[in-house]
Write a structure and sequence with these properties.
- The complex is a heterodimer of chains A (312) and B (107).
- Chain A is built from 6 helices and 17 strands.
- Chain A has 312 residues and is α/β, with parallel strands linked by helices.
- In chain A, the strands form 4 sheets. In chain A, strands 1, 2, 3, 4, 5, 6 and 17 form a 7-stranded mixed β-sheet that branches. In chain A, strands 8-15-9-10-11 form a 5-stranded parallel β-sheet, covered by helices on one side. In chain A, strands 12-13-14 form a 3-stranded antiparallel β-sheet, with no helix packed on it.
- In chain A, helix 1 links the parallel strand 1 and strand 2.
- The two termini of chain A are 34 Å apart.
- Chain B is globular.
- Classes of the chains: A alpha/beta (312), B alpha/beta (107).
Amino acid sequence: MSEKIFFDLVIVGGGPAGLTAYLYAKRALLNCLLVEKGPLGGQVLLTDWIENYLGFPQGISGYELVSLFQRQVEKYGLEVKYQEAVDLEVEEPYRVVSLTNGERLYTKAVILALGATPRRLGVPGERELTGKGVSYCAVCDGPLFRDEEVAVVGGGDTALQEALYLTKFVKKVFLIHRREAFRAIPILQQRVQENSKIELILSTVVKEIHGKERVEALSLQNLKTGEEFSLKVAGVFIFIGLIPQTDWLKGKLALDENGYIITDREMRTSLPGVFACGDCLSKKHRQIVIACGEGALACLSAQEYLQGLKDV
Amino acid sequence: MGACKVTDQDFEKEVLQSEIPVLVDFWAAWCGPCRAIAPIIDELAEEYQGKVKICKLNVDENPLTPGKYGIRAIPTMILFKDGQPVETIVGAVSKATLVNAINKVLS
């Protein structure tokens, strides 16, 4: 069944980090392949508006930015395999990436740009009502809640940014955060304070999401007073951080306690010939511009590694 | 030819009364992930021609049908067989996920 295909470099993940690495690889004339399990763009596709990526003074929508990334890479020939990577093995001098369809990609170097997916609250009702009012993407689902009342859960940049975005459509946003203060950058906090459609519910956690066919209400608990209360909403948008999808790499290379990939400053993982970049890295800050920078660096390091193989 | 367009008006005829299974992609122009998977939906229309009808319904222009099926997220893909929804897939999933779902309904 399994067919052997040989490459200089295989990049797993087609978000900003992976696409930048791919651009650098093509300009270095490497025999390179991009593996992506969904549409190209990763989390950028889920972002309504981006104002902190230089070159777009008015800001740009996530979809448009991805389209521009793609157009730029396509100039050099974009070869994508739309499959999920499920295994990484060593068969010297190759690294072997296995895909869900059984294909095995033999490559001298690998760049892991796996990204991350939204963290779930883990409360009753969440899984059952996902797509029925529980959402992790305001830009996808926000306009379906026109003139209704919704909740946003979280206190970081994403939560505040998306709460602000939702006010374009909905009647009211209840912004629920488990702490007394937000982590988000000051400009977003200021905009939230000034927005009359946003009501803050602080020091409060979601205990349960209720509804049959669709979300109807939340059970909340104030952590200071212990008081439990119910809040009627038509939807709940959850932005409480990210988790990496690195289960398939356990035991193959060093991961931190949360499953993020550990690299050095040159984007090298603990497994020689394997590099990583973007949101799947063990690090503090996750931004598009950081992912792009790391993608470039990962590719330059991979080129150095490939050159080293030739010199032996 | 790509996926065909359905509306609130012809949903009954085109989808519910269809002789073969129908996959309906509920989408909107403002939804990046919807636009990102549009090429996959068109490919499926080619590959399953005659076996499964692949349709797109714009939720902005056709609010009644999404309301009826409780669509609260897009893209949502619903597979209909004999007028009944038999499989629902939410989000910009991979082509393989859609192919698996379609094949399950066909088998």
